[in-house]
Amino acid sequence: xxxxxxxxxxxxxxxxxxxxxxxxxxxxxxxxxxxxxxxxxxxxxxxxxxxxxxxxxxxxxxxxxxxxxxxxxxxxxxxxxxxxxxxxxxxxxxxxxxxxxxxxxxxxxxxxxxxxxxxxxxxxxxxxxxxxxxxxxxxxxxxxxxxxxxxxxxxxxxxxxxxxxxxxxxxxxxxxxxxxxxxxxxxxxxxxxxxxxxxxxxxxxxxxxxx
Length: 211
Ligand SMILES: O=C(CO)COP(=O)(O)O
Fold this sequence. Notes:
It catalyses: D-glyceraldehyde 3-phosphate = dihydroxyacetone phosphate. This protein is α/β, with parallel strands linked by helices.
């Protein structure tokens, strides 16, 4: 299972969480990546943890003020990027351009979507993986794998054989992770369960413990 930890814009210490994630990955062999704020990518990557961007713009270098270049986040140490997160929705053409920009920069891509229909469309754009996250469950602590297991199994079917599916929203425990795996997800995307925890290291350790 791939554990992709999205720190969003939470008021957490990204380096402390990244160092804990690097240790947990080393100690358990579980693939754990951290997606911090863009400005923290370099500092997070220095911990040795697999580092992702939360978003890249679908542009190359040029006159694009305020954009986030895929090449720039790759230079800073990121090896992958989320695209079209529920809190950063893009139009289809922008998602396509974002995937192509990420590919040019050598970044792995996970395209997020709300439901199995959107997962089918996202998978046709040929990202490395897709992630289904029902927006109504994000940040609730109610795991998608329990509240709406069919959205995961239907997304796995919709994505087809070629594109792995992650699931997210409300995932915070090892039990949630196992449930996601049983539904066919190859990873989880999570945020508040670790980023807002009093002890993020302990939260991460407990999360991967049953794997
Ligand atoms: O949006 C998410 C991850 O990208 C899920 O957030 P929560 O884990 O806080 O529900």
